[in-house]
Amino acid sequence: MVLILRPHTTPIGDETYLFLRQAKAQYTMEDQLSFSGRIHSFNILPQIIRWLSLNGSVQVGIIANLLMIVLGALTTLTFFSIVKTLKRTRTIAFLATIIFVLSPAFTYLFVTVNKNAFPLLLLLISMDSMLKENTRRANLALIATAAFGIIPAIVSLLSIAIYVLLKKEKKLWLAGVIIGTVIVIQMALARTSHIIQDTPIRFVQTLQTMLADMGGIFGLNIFAIILAIFGFVYLWKEKYKHSIIYITIIVFSITSIFIKDTLFYLTPLIAALAALGIEEILKIRWEIRLIENLTLLVLITGLLFSSFSHVKALTVAQPTDEIKESLEFLKEQSNQSAVVFSDITKGNWISAIAERKNVWDSNTELVRDIKERNIDFKNLTATRKIKEADKVIEKYGITHIWIDANMKKKLWKNEEDGLLFLLTYGKDFKKIYESENTQILEIER
User: Fold this and answer.
1) Using one digit for the tens of pLDDT, what is the confidence trace for 116-137?
2) CA nearest 104: which of 260, 332, 325, 295?
3) What residue spans define the domains of the chain?
């Protein structure tokens, strides 16, 4: 629905452009464009897309979209199977699946090309396999998640740890050992733990990330959370029988504060509990029947409205056609050795569409100087002094600066604030492109 309603021809998201760019080329140990040259972070997804496209014979964008649709369908069926096995009723399984499919996380997962879609399916397959006592398949599915990056590997390891500690069983020990080894190796290569955010945790910003209704692009639906609370009450009647569910929700919720991608893996649990919550509301003996009906009506209507609002927001999500046109201009009017400075969220667009080196992008795995670059970014965007700006420009060999309206709103108070002052009055900055919401400046040296 999102892709049909979208007024732009450009794919949605940030990671989408990273993986599509990587899928178009043979895998190498070094990425020449990301961070102006860095160790290639391994993720098997681009290679899967490349293989399915017959090494680029078929357009990788089409193959990627079809792959996401198939993954979405398989994820839906596997989730339904799990809930039906646990609850043994089609009604609850159907309700849980509908709530899951309507969630912002599900929508985002399968309309963008991202590193979490495959691992989520694999985690659900492993859970379904354990419920059906197929330990071998469960281990293989969990091990496979490590091929999609360090974050899915961490989530899988947490899941295994919870299962082993609470169930007192060692059925998943092999997957745990292999995944743990992969994580240690990747951390050693990076010499840092920047996967976990090192910025101060602010209550409002955390809520905005975790809740879709407050702006989180793949956050939880607040109405689903309310229904899930009723579902928790339903499960609590059997006390500690469902302790593994309680602990998993608590651990994943805390982890999502530091690693926001954990929200993708928390969403199915909330959806299942929300379905139980609806059943619990129907079982409560209400003194006034009207209150019961109104409560359900408000929660279900809110759930639907929130879902459709999120779909609408995704239809106009960046990058827009205007952004694509500006980056295509940059590709035509700059040398292949050009280095482009912009916000971290724009880096993958620059490397994929303009095919130019970026100073940084959101793919920070195995990047050793991310904190240093973040400091330099803040210094350059905040300064009005040409000598301070030159230090950062020369350090990274920056030749162009790409700015859009969102960056201006996020970083500066007015047109004469910080770097914007230098870009307006500095002699070394030449504006070579401008549209309603974007501009490109060339640094003349």
Assistant:
1) 999 999 999 999 999 998 999 9
2) 260
3) 42-315, 321-443
